[in-house]
Amino acid sequence: MCWSACNKAWEALSVNGLENLRDIHEPSLIGWWPLAPGWYVVLIAAFIVGAFVGRKIYRRWRQVSLKRYALAHLDELAMQFQASHQAEIIQELSVLLRRLCLAYYSRHQIAGLSGDDWLRFLDRTGSTRAFSQGTGRLLLTAPYQKTLDDSAGELFDTIKLWLKEQQ
């Protein structure tokens, strides 16, 4: 008797129970905002790395453009050197070198340098001795000479080599 009652209840449940069943409801989608704490760490790290790389790229671009400008100005002065007052052009070369050094090195390293100290600084930063013992001495002596010898044109090559050594 018990089995027949259970059997009837089971049949009633299976027939009527299918009508009462509903679809499975999936949970709502998880939104992308607010971010999990780990993503904040990733974003901050990406920002720091991006700022560092951007700064390096900007500095490199600035140095390359500075070298390009200096080489163009040096070529312009070389053309003027052949045609006009050579002592004035050499003074302009000295001014150009000062400006370049101020761009590459700190002001307190350069501001107090003059005479032989200035030439030794150029030798040290350019890995050469051409300024203190070669044609670079014209930077000091040319303004006081009436005529320059033929080696004055080599000063342009010395300055170009110095400029290529700068990073």
What keyword list fits this structure?
rod-shaped; 167 residues; mainly alpha
Explain this structure:
By secondary structure, this protein is mostly helical. The chain has a domain at 66-165. It contains 7 helices and no strands. The chain has helices spanning 2-20, 37-83, 86-104, 107-110, 115-126, 138-141, 154-165. The protein starts with a helix and ends with a helix. The mean pLDDT is 84.
Content-based structural category: mainly alpha
H/I helix tally: 7
| Largest sheet entry | none
Topology as a string of helices (H) and strands (E): HHHHHHH
The portion of residues assigned to helices is over 70%
Task: Report the portion of residues in β strands.
Answer: under 5%
- Could you list the spans in which at least 5 consecutive residues all have pLDDT below 50? none
N-to-C span: 101 Å
Average predicted local confidence, pLDDT: 84
CA-based gyration radius:
39 Å
Shape: rod-shaped
Number of strands: 0
Question: Secondary-structure map with pairings?
Answer:
Blueprint: H1 2-20, H2 37-83, H3 86-104, H4 107-110, H5 115-126, H6 138-141, H7 154-165
Helix pairs in contact: 2-3, 2-7, 5-7
Could you write a compact summary of the structure shown?
With 167 residues, this protein is mainly α. It is built from seven helices and no strands. The relative contact order is 0.09.
